[in-house]
Design a protein that fits this description.
This protein is α/β, with parallel strands linked by helices. It has 13 helices and nine strands. Helices cover 36% and strands 10% of the residues. A hairpin with a 2-residue loop joins strand 4 and strand 5. It is globular, with a radius of gyration of 23 Å.
Length: 449
């Protein structure tokens, strides 16, 4: 988790405020609306990574795209969230014939850079966090339950270097909220500083201008006052984020114990919602289980997860994936009950991408491992997610190898799925500054409302 310093904020804010004074009044007002308007809440993204894929028959509904498909065993815990998500079938790891090496053990990080590790030094979450990090104290939040350690298991890279996930929600909270709970700078305080700089410059320049120019400058000053009233947080919100409550159950357990899995996961979920509510970051990546992790969660099964997926114990594989789906449901619960700046809830303004590094993890060494990733795109109702659908992009389970090489399916890869998420979240993915993880492929319009 990379933090922007207070000096970064003030330098950027001052430059932005000074630059606007040289612009025309319409441009000034447009800048302020873009910078401060809270009629809509900021968009956010959560990536939920679950290693080792999923058995197709338990994860995907049958048949073509539908709004009424029955959720099979694995995703049955998400049935009550049907109107807030879409299950997506037909996305594979990378383009056939490319030099991409996405999928498989030791390679989950490749999923977030479209399988082209040598080409993209920053993974998708890093790029999105860097883009949005100018407006928040932290670029991203990286947390994981029972994560493996070591560079080959890192999900996220920045400038080619692994970025490790915090396994302890208590340490992650302390790092983000400065141990004592006081936020270094709230979003409101940051914006107030920009306005204060603008007011100072207005007063300074007013004495040097003629009457006509002064009248225009007075309009500018009135606009600043209107924006000041607009950005004031709801009563009590500032105090909540200055001293947020966290871990009210008093968890102090060992984060390496599988019997603490659910308690640890719930705290990570709580922290993500808290970070979004207080605008500490807009990007979070959450690993529910590491690549070769073998958590034996007593509430699920005495045997571990990895052995069930890799060694074709379909029953164990299915039970663990169903349990992980219930944890995704807990995340949706928390986001849906946490208020947002627009008077709605976090879920409607947050895209939750549930993904994996494999299709069916029980077929190691078979091309089927790279086909039909278990994808769920939840939340984001206000961002254009086509919720309420099972979306089949044309995948034929009876002939997955043909599908992998089919020309029509070549546009459905994890890289342009990530570009699709970015586009829904308001990113101009055609801009030269965006890495285009899908290459020349366009965002997948079938997933958009």
């Amino acid at each position: 988790m990379r933090r922007r310093t207070r000096r970064d904020f003030l330098a950027t804010s001052a430059r932005g405020a000074l630059a606007t004074l040289g612009a025309s009044l319409p441009a000034q007002l447009g800048w302020m609306r873009a910078a401060f308007g809270q009629a809509t809440a900021p968009s956010r993204v959560v990536i939920v990574f679950v290693a080792n894929g999923a058995p197709e028959e338990g994860f995907f509904p049958d048949g073509p795209t539908s709004t009424s498909a029955a959720f099979p065993t694995i995703n049955a815990p998400l049935e009550r969230w049907r109107d807030h998500l879409q299950i997506v079938s037909g996305v594979h790891t990378h383009l056939p014939g490319s030099n991409a090496t996405a999928g498989g053990h030791g390679g989950p990080y490749r999923m977030l850079n479209a399988g082209r590790f040598g080409e993209f030094k920053d993974t998708f979450d890093t790029s999105l966090g860097r883009l949005w990090g100018m407006d928040t104290p932290f670029e991203n939040l990286l947390v994981g339950t029972m994560m493996d350690s070591g560079p080959s298991y890192a999900l996220t890279t920045r400038a080619g270097a692994p970025q490790y996930y915090e396994r302890s929600p208590l340490r992650a909270f302390s790092a983000m909220f400065d141990a004592g709970g006081a936020v270094d700078t709230t979003d409101f305080d940051r914006k107030k500083k920009i306005l204060d700089v603008a007011r100072t410059q207005v007063r300074r320049f007013r004495a040097e201008l003629g009457s006509l120019e002064r009248a225009k400058l007075d309009e500018h000053a009135e606009a600043i006052d209107r924006v000041d009233n607009l950005i004031r947080p709801p009563a009590g919100a500032g105090a909540f984020c200055d001293a947020p409550t966290f871990n009210e159950m008093g968890f102090s357990g060992d984060v390496n114990r599988a019997d603490q899995f659910e308690a640890i996961t719930d705290l990570h979920i709580e922290l993500m919602a808290l970070a979004f509510r207080c605008n500490m970051t807009r990007m979070a990546t959450f690993a529910l289980c590491g690549d070769e992790g073998e958590p034996s969660i007593p509430s699920v099964l005495p045997q571990g997860f990895h052995g069930g997926s890799v060694h074709a114990d379909r029953g164990r594989y299915t039970q663990y994936r169903r349990y992980f789906a219930s944890r995704v449901g807990a995340l949706l619960d928390k986001l849906s009950t946490t208020p947002d700046l627009d008077g709605g809830n976090l879920l409607d303004n947050t895209l939750v991408l549930v993904t994996s590094n494999m299709g069916d993890g029980s077929v190691h060494g078979n091309p089927r491992e790279y086909v039909n990733l278990p994808i769920i795109l939840a939340g984001g109702r206000n961002l254009g997610n086509r919720v309420g659908y099972y979306t089949n992009l044309g995948y034929d389970a009876s002939d997955p190898i043909r599908y992998l090489g089919d020309a029509a399916s070549r546009r459905y890869v994890h890289g342009n799925l990530m570009d699709t998420v970015a586009a829904m979240a308001g990113v101009d993915v055609s801009a030269p500054s965006w890495p285009r993880y899908g290459g020349d492929l366009e965002p997948i319009s079938d997933l958009m409302a």
